[in-house]
Amino acid sequence: MTSLAEDALASAERWQKQAPSEDDKIDFLTKSIDDMKNPDVQDEFKGNIKKLGVAAVQTDEAFDKINRTFIKFVKDHGSDFPGLATYKDRWTTYKDCWTTLLRQSRDLANLTSANYKKYDQVFLHIVQNVRDKKEMVEAAEALSTFSEEKPVGIPLDISQKFLDLKNDVERFQKEFNDYVETQRVQLLAQAKNLQQEIDGLLKQIDGLTAAVLPDFNVASGPNIIFVFTADYGSHYAHRRWRLVEPGIAIIGLAVERAKKQKQLAAKQADLAEVNRKQEALAHIKSEFDGLDPDIKIISSSLSLFADIWRQFHGEAEEFAKVLRDVQSPTSIPRAFRLRVELARTIASPLQLALEAYANTIGTR
Fold it and tell me: How far is CA 83 from the centre of its chain?
């Protein structure tokens, strides 16, 4: 046995390919009315709307969890990655938007529940019981007036705002992943360049070490002591200057070697810092990837919120148009009468479901 929702989807898919005949509409509406009179189907219907409330609570928790995660990111790694602060601020904006929409959806659910009760017990009751053209015109005017009512302080495009927020969240996830990947590539390039510089410095230091040590062994023997302590005329003076020249070269090589070693230490420290940032970035990516289920909850939940207010107020205007167009109660199409009956059959479970949704959200 298929559910009411499955039948509706199947009919919608079929009618997209081929417009329904009047008999198709009548069959569908008749079955829907019979289903909605079934207590089990009513419970399923109310349960589906109540699930929106549960989804809303889960979504609220997901927004808060991600918000706390980005606050932690900035606190722990903001100095290494200044761009994190921008993403934190963006998420805070989304969370604030969600909080506003959630409150508005709760208020709208309460208002819609009361409003639909009036729609059912007053306006649809009148439509079902019109006796002549005059009453039909009066009913049409009343429905038109009702259809133009707007909830105070609540945007009628709230469902679109939910979808806009859903798109913002999905775009945020992609852009943050792109940001992390860009940082990863940049750090990888820095590490590669630093390693190349370190390898080059090590080779230079090895070369300087090889040049310094042999000359140092030759110039540091007894002769150099003799040269600096003995002075017996021009012959020895000549020898002294000949031996001093290698000593000066050795000192120059040693100084250059010390300079390269200092550069090496600085580059090694820079590489260690880059490696630390790479580890930090890997941690950020791992934590953000772990938030993917929460982002999926947000996206799927936001796409579920439907603007029931707009739906039945739009339906009221459609009913008004039919009543204006037909000439007498006897000429009202059967499909129209069945639509009115279905709308009235749905009224009670819909009111209860909307109240349950609002109560589930509570004071969030």
Answer: 17
Sign of CA dihedral 158, 161, 165, 171: positive
Give me the number of domains the chain comprises: 2
Cβ 161 vs Cβ 96: under 8 Å: no
Residue 263 vs residues 212, 268, 359: alpha-carbon distances, Å: 19, 9, 67
Dihedral (Cα; 110, 116, 117, 123), 10-degree rounding: 150
* One domain for residues 198 and 110: no
Instruction: Give the pTM.
Output: 0.72
**Does residue 119 fall inside a structural domain?**
yes
Residue 129 lies in a domain: yes
Structural domain harbouring 74? 39-156+309-361
Burial of 106 from C-beta contacts in 10 A (0-12 / 13-18 / 19+): buried
Q: What is the predicted pLDDT for the residue at 69?
A: 95
Last residue of a domain, one of 235, 254, 288: 288
The ranges of the chain with pLDDT < 50 are 1, 215-244
Both tokens assigned to 201: 């410095």
Residue 179 belongs to some domain of the structure: no
Q: Which residue has the tokens 């006897």?
A: 330
